[in-house]
Amino acid sequence: MGTMDRRTWLTATAATLGGALASDAAATKDDNPDSKKAEPFRFGLNTATLMGQKLSIVEVVEIAARAGYRAIEPWVRELDRYVESGGKLKDLQKRIADRGLSVPSAIDFFEWIVDDEAQRKKGLENARRGMDAVKQIGGTRIAAPPSGATNRANIPLSTLAQRYRALLEIGSEIGVVPQIEVWGFSKTLSRLSEAAYIAVESGHKDACILADVYHLYKGGSGFGGIHVLNGSVLHVLHMNDYPADPPRETIADAQRVYPGDGVAPLKTFLRELRQIGFRGTLSLELFNRDYWKRDALTVARSGLDKMRAVVASSLE
Over pLDDT 70: what percentage of the chain? Predict the structure, then answer.
């Protein structure tokens, strides 16, 4: 099926896929929201938000806790640097727990999706290693973006579903669930409907999706289709916003802004997330170079305050 025909068909059948997803996954204990009734979601900090400040993972954990977050979403390469400098992941796990933080997700870029069999085998080995590190710090999930295939638009979705299932089976062995991640700039897995199809066709009980406000916009999915999914297949959502200019075709990661400072329909989107039963983590993920020049604690606190404000507006 051609790329355009395939995507047209996916749009027309999104409701069917959403129904299948609803019966294929269940919420987990880790997805309990903040205790405040006015805050139905947990608030997390993706460490990319402070990447420019060149902090250690220990320093970011401390900042996240001081700022008031309930969760942290580290990158596996930060865990690698921590170990390389003499740290022990079990010690980091204790520090995270002692600060009242959970690790509902982590970021990595293993090439599970590529056509080349040897490359894919290596990618799965890297996935196993990354999952093991995440497990050691108390993490439960890991991102599975289309790394290595962003310039490919002709890999059959049924093939991608088989590859995702292989990844899920590794996750089952380790105890860390890979979340199929939508990347709006990619030619593969750029749309929410594609991720939904792959998750359903994988046939695996742990299949789930990692969505992102910016990527839903960048890839053209928009926000209207989220209502056909069941919230239990969305454990973590990357939270951010984007300006009206530059346009969608040329906007880049670095132009993400704090939630509420852009033009994304966050009030409606968050309301729909709540209505479909999403009770997971909103993880602030920004790559804004201007924010990277600012005091890290100030950025973290500002991001949390702005997330809370847009969530509150969605409850009105």
Answer: 88
Cβ atoms 180, 199 nearer than 8 A: yes
- The secondary structure of the chain, three-state, reads CCHHHHHHHHHHCHHHHHHHHHHHCCCCHHHCCCCCCCCCCEEEEEHHHHHHHCCCHHHHHHHHHHHCCCEEECEHHHHHHHHHCCCCHHHHHHHHHHCCCEECCCECCCCCCCCCHHHHHHHHHHHHHHHHHHHHCCECEEEECCCCCCCCCCCCHHHHHHHHHHHHHHHHHHCCEEEEECCCCCCCCCCHHHHHHHHHHHCCCCCCEEEEHHHHHHCCCCCHHHHHCCHHHCCEEEECECCCCCCCCCCCHHHCECCCCCCCCHHHHHHHHHHCCCCCEEEECCCCHHHHCCCHHHHHHHHHHHHHHHHHHHCC
Rounded to whole angstroms, the Cα distance separating 233 from 25 reads 6
Predicted confidence (pLDDT) per residue in 157-188, tens digit:
999 999 999 999 999 999 999 999 999 999 99
| CA angle (80, 139, 147) in 5-degree steps | 60
Report domain extents, the chain: 3-314
Measured in degrees and rounded to the nearest 5, phi and psi for residue 45 equal -115, 115
Among 34-38, 244-248, 295-299, whose mean pLDDT is lowest?
34-38
Kind of pairing between the strands at 177-181 and 209-212: parallel
The arrangement of secondary structure in 3-314, i.e. its CATH architecture, is Alpha-Beta Barrel (3.20)
Phi-psi group of 138: left, alpha or beta (phi > 0 → left; psi -120 to 50 → alpha; rest → beta): left
**How many Cα atoms within 13 Å fall on the side-chain side of residue 19?**
3
